[in-house]
């Protein structure tokens, strides 16, 4: 039997697990036999996600967990360790943009709202760093563990309008490399930190930006498609395999990388 991709009984905590990409990934990982801890901001969303997850198996639980609240992170960390005895993987899926941190189509560059910009930096960057600094303590104690972060296509190439989000995702790439290096040098080669950089997937946050009500592309949606050699948006299940690979033994010599899952968007010059 091929055990390279076996994630049976791994304890995997997923933040943003009531959302589209991380939520779908959490369910997929549970279907593969992992024990999944569903974490998201509001109790009702967590309860709904766990109710769905129970249909897959009993190997799941959930907690309301604001990734920017250190007290809550500490409590959840302690509860997971108490009930599961270990934590093998952290998937940092909480993140996203907000309108005020984006330059609107009719706005000037200098209309940026610094307060909203800071909120987006916090959610995406600190919202990844804080859970990692909390949960990776278990990896140090166990001598093994794995983190998967969510970057974005906006981290490397300038993308119009989305300043705060882009700055935060660029910093996530840097944090991925930094944390991977530190954990390996200090605690050995069984602790790995990687990221994926999804291309464009229709979700709650970007639907109106990319699609008109009749399903046709907006002008921005068309620009994205023009720069995507696959000529389509991603489907949420198309991120699952990369995450599965990154947390499995198949990637046991892989750390500090950011894997594009983007239909060729990053590779293509657009010309
Ligand atoms: N959808 C895309 O095209 C795309 C592209 C690139 C990167 N990403 C990244 O992928 C990740 C998931 O995106 P998605 O499209 O599934 O978004 P989503 O909005 O569906 O999910 C994000 C989840 O994070 C939760 N969340 C927000 N603030 C939180 C907080 N403070 N604490 C805990 N949870 C919180 C939300 O409740 C939501 O359930 C994000 O980091 C996003 O930036 C998405």
Mean pLDDT over the residues: 96
Task: Enumerate the strands of the largest sheet in spatial order, edge to edge or round the barrel.
Answer: 3-2-1-4-5-6-7
For the record, the CATH class of the largest domain is Alpha Beta
CATH topology of the largest domain: Rossmann fold
Q: Give the number of domains.
A: 2
Question: Which structural class matches the secondary elements?
Answer: alpha/beta
CATH architecture of the largest domain: 3-Layer(aba) Sandwich
Succession of helices and strands? EHEHEHEHEHEHHHE
Q: Treating each run of at least 4 consecutive H or I residues as one helix, how many helices?
A: 8
Strand composition percent: 5-15%
What is the approximate shape? globular
CATH superfamily placement of the largest domain: NAD(P)-binding Rossmann-like Domain
Radius of gyration (CA) equals 18 Å
* Helix content range: 40-55%
Low-confidence spans: pLDDT under 50, at least 5 residues? none
Question: What is the tally of beta strands?
Answer: 7
- So what's the oligomer here? single chain
Largest sheet: 7 strands, parallel
Distance between the ends:
45 Å
């Amino acid at each position: 039997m091929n055990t390279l991709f076996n994630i049976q009984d791994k304890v995997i905590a997923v933040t943003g697990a009531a959302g589209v990409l991380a939520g779908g990934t959490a369910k997929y990982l549970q279907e593969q036999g992992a024990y999944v801890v569903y974490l998201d901001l509001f109790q009702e969303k967590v309860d709904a996600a766990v109710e769905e997850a129970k249909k897959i198996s009993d190997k799941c639980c959930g907690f309301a967990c604001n990734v920017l609240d250190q007290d809550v992170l500490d409590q959840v960390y302690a509860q997971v360790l108490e009930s599961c005895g270990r934590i093998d993987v952290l998937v940092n899926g909480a993140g996203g943009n907000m309108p005020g941190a984006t330059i609107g189509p009719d706005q000037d560059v200098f209309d940026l709202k610094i307060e909203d910009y800071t909120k987006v930096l916090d959610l995406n960057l600190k919202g990844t760093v804080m859970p990692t600094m909390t949960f990776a303590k278990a990896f140090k104690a166990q001598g093994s563990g794995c983190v998967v972060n969510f970057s974005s296509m906006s981290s490397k190439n300038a993308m119009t309008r989305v300043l705060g989000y882009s700055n935060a995702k660029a910093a996530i790439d840097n944090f991925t490399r930094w944390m991977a290096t530190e954990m390996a040098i200090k605690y050995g080669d069984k602790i790995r930190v990687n990221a994926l950089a999804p291309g464009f997937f229709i979700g709650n946050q970007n639907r109106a930006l990319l699609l008109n009500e009749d399903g046709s592309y907006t002008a921005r949606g068309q620009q994205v498609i023009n720069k995507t050699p696959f000529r389509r948006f991603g489907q949420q299940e198309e991120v699952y395999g990369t995450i599965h690979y990154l947390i499995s033994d198949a990637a046991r010599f892989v750390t500090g990388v950011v894997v594009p899952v983007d239909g060729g968007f990053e590779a293509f010059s657009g010309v």
